[in-house]
């Protein structure tokens, strides 16, 4: 027979956020509408894909090795987001901070690789004002990059909040939203590397 | 003790779900890259495999990372996703259809 107090103590070891929280559902609605913005950009890209007046085709400018490294970085962020979720559930402060920091560094690596790719393209004269294909391409990839940058800012804010307040239920809901955001960006990147890079290279 | 066991089992389920998800999605991500970089098959088979991998990867992400299933807790989440898929289908197929007609004349 264990006392009520012990049960409470054991109960406090885990932090379970119910999924029917209104905040998370509201954030889900935001993500889904963001999906529609990306879908319109994909539609523009598919329409513009063949309008290459005097520029290069996708096959000539895409470097699959760089894209592969970017993909690995984003896949790792998805895995570390899962680790953050588990750490929050276990209320392990150090593990939460560590996995958020790793996510931040991986995001930084991704953005810098993307900027490097853009820099090389522009140096070679393939800037967005060259033709319709290139402007649609730069808009779509740039939009994804901007989302990643905002996600990184969000991670910094969350790290400071976690250090100040500890792993409370409020923080747990915020981290859950952040993780949903990263998984969403990962799904968008999946669409990008499948429909733009891999099919463009074929 | 009962509550503790239940929470521990939820915890183990979470870890298992993330592990399975990462394994599946890394296989489904690297397979198309490998096939395209080596270019073993013809273009048609490659295109089919790439799109198949994408669809499977999408479902893996929804199931293991976003924890979407058909339980009552998730009913509204799923409804929203299905609605968005309809809208996205209309946007993409509609604009492709109209613009391809426009290019023909």
Question: How would you characterize this protein structure?
Answer:
The complex is a heterodimer of chains A (202) and B (105). Chain A has 202 residues and is mostly helical. Chain A has a domain at 65-202: Up-down Bundle (Four Helix Bundle (Hemerythrin (Met), subunit A)). Chain A is 81% helix and 0% strand. Chain A has seven helices and no strands. Chain A has helices spanning 4-11, 22-48, 58-61, 64-89, 93-123, 132-165, 169-201. In chain A, helix 2 (22-48) runs parallel beside helix 7, helix 4 (64-89) runs antiparallel to helix 5 and helix 4 packs antiparallel against helix 7 (169-201). Chain A starts with a helix and ends with a helix. The relative contact order of chain A is 0.16. Residues 1-10 of chain A have low confidence and may be disordered. Chain B has 105 residues and is an all-alpha fold. Chain B folds into two domains: 1-67; 71-105. Chain B is built from three helices and no strands. Chain B is flat and about 70 Å long. The termini of chain B are far apart. The chains are: A mainly alpha (202), B mainly alpha (105). The interface between A and B is large, with 48 and 47 residues.
């Amino acid at each position: 027979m264990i006392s009520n107090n012990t049960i409470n103590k054991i109960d406090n070891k885990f932090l379970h956020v119910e999924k029917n929280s209104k905040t998370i559902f509201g954030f889900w609605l935001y993500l889904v509408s963001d999906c529609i913005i990306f879908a319109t950009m994909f539609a523009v890209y598919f329409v513009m894909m063949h309008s290459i007046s005097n520029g290069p085709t996708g096959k000539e400018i895409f470097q699959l090795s760089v894209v592969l490294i970017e993909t690995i970085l984003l896949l790792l962020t998805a895995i570390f987001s899962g680790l953050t979720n588990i750490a929050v559930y276990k209320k392990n402060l150090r593990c939460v901070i560590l996995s958020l920091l790793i996510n931040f560094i991986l995001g930084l690596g991704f953005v810098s690789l993307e900027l490097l790719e853009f820099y090389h393209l522009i140096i070679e004269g393939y800037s967005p004002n060259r033709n319709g294909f290139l402007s649609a391409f730069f808009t779509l990839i740039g939009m994804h990059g901007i989302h990643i940058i905002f996600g990184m800012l969000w991670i910094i804010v969350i790290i400071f909040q976690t250090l100040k307040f500890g792993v409370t239920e409020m923080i747990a809901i915020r981290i859950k939203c952040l993780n949903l955001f990263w998984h969403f960006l990962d799904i968008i990147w999946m669409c990008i590397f499948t429909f733009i890079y891999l099919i463009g290279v074929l | 003790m009962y509550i503790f066991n239940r929470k521990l089992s939820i915890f183990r389920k979470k870890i298992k779900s993330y592990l399975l998800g990462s394994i599946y999605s890394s296989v489904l991500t690297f397979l198309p890259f490998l096939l395209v970089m080596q270019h073993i098959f013809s273009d048609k088979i490659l295109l089919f495999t790439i799109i198949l991998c994408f669809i499977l990867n999408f479902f893996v992400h929804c199931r293991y990372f976003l924890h979407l299933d058909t339980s009552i807790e998730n009913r509204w989440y799923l409804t929203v996703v299905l609605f968005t898929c309809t809208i996205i289908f209309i946007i993409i197929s509609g604009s492709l259809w109209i613009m391809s007609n426009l290019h023909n004349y």
